[in-house]
Specification:
The structure is a single chain. The protein is 45% helix and 12% strand. It is α+β, with helices and mostly antiparallel strands. The strands form two sheets. It has a five-stranded antiparallel sheet. The protein has a two-stranded antiparallel ribbon with strand order 6-7. It is globular. It binds a DNA duplex (13 and 12 nucleotides) through α6, α11 and α12.
Length: 275
DNA sequence: CGCCAGGTATGAT
DNA sequence: ATCATACATGGC
């Protein structure tokens, strides 16, 4: 590919860790290469990124505003330093942050997030990535050599379950199609979800077969940047039961989703739990 | 091989 | 309303 190189200087490098951001179970299109770069697709652009202290070294296939796009994607204007300071008053959040500082909630495409988290249900992360990759390979547009965009809802709306057989998505295939049909027809209005409160979004998304409370929360958090969304999966269930039997700490109110990401990753990966 | 995975739909109490 | 079970597939 004909690469365009760029650099991003981070104002607060201590609250950004590229590897943690793209590999903490919130996005499924990034992978690490032998040379320490992370490759992935944002919108219709392919990126190769590497963090070196306060610098992100980048390459992309498209001419354009990569820096601006990634500033938005990584949500660099959000003040994580202040947030993390307030979280540190809670014992367990403090432990999670100490070990995994640098996690941020990415601002992903709404439809991609919805579709990805439909696929995520009762599934494991490596396999989710595989299904998403096959979905892109089979139904997306080739944006550079062997790299495909995430397919539009309109494209999938015309598919039947058999058409998705190659994905090996199992029982989730019909859910993907139902979502594609309802989103492309406007029966589920993603723009309206963006512009309305979270309760509206919950009700709207749960019109889709295969979207329950958990997938709806994930979509609202990762696909609509609604930081008050709080997905409860098996790991968060565990941590609530073990650490917060009497309720979550008050300080996370308004940014529960961010706290959730730290706790999720910590509970799932930390040796503190002697996994 | 068996248990489990960033759950949800469905049907039975 | 709450609870049990099936669900496709494959990671570990």
């Amino acid at each position: 590919m004909s690469n365009k190189n760029f650099e991003i200087k981070l104002n607060t490098p201590d609250v950004f860790n590229l590897e943690l951001c793209v590999d903490c179970g919130q996005a499924f299109r990034w992978s690490k290469t032998e040379d320490g770069f992370f490759t992935g697709v944002v919108g219709n652009s392919f990126y190769r990124l590497k963090q070196d202290g306060n610098t992100i070294i980048g390459e992309t296939n498209t001419q354009g505003e990569s820096v601006k796009i990634l500033n938005e994607y990584f949500d660099f204007n959000r003040d994580y330093e202040t947030l993390i300071k307030s979280y540190a008053t809670d014992k367990y959040l403090e432990m999670a942050i100490t070990e995994y500082k640098g996690i941020r909630i990415l601002k992903q495409d709404s439809w991609e997030a919805l579709c990805s988290f439909i696929i995520s249900q009762n599934n494991n992360i490596p396999r989710i990535k595989g299904i998403v990759e096959r979905l892109c390979q089979n139904f997306g547009e080739e944006i550079c050599d062997g790299v495909y965009s995430f397919p539009q809802a309109e494209k999938l709306a015309g598919c039947c379950v058999e058409d998705l057989g190659q994905l090996r998505a199992g029982f989730r295939a019909r859910y993907i199609i139902d979502a594609a049909k309802k989103v492309s027809s406007g029966e589920v209005d993603l723009k309206a979800i963006k512009n309305n409160d979270i309760e509206f979004g919950r009700a709207e998304l749960m019109k889709i077969t295969g979207v329950g409370a958990k997938v709806a929360e994930c979509t609202l958090l990762y696909g609509f940047a609604k930081m008050e969304a709080f997905p409860i999966d098996v790991w968060v269930k565990r941590i609530v039961r073990e650490m917060y039997p009497d309720g979550l700490p008050e300080i996370i109110t308004g940014s529960q989703g961010i706290a959730q990401q730290y706790l999720f990753h910590w509970r799932r990966n930390s040796n503190y739990f002697n996994k």
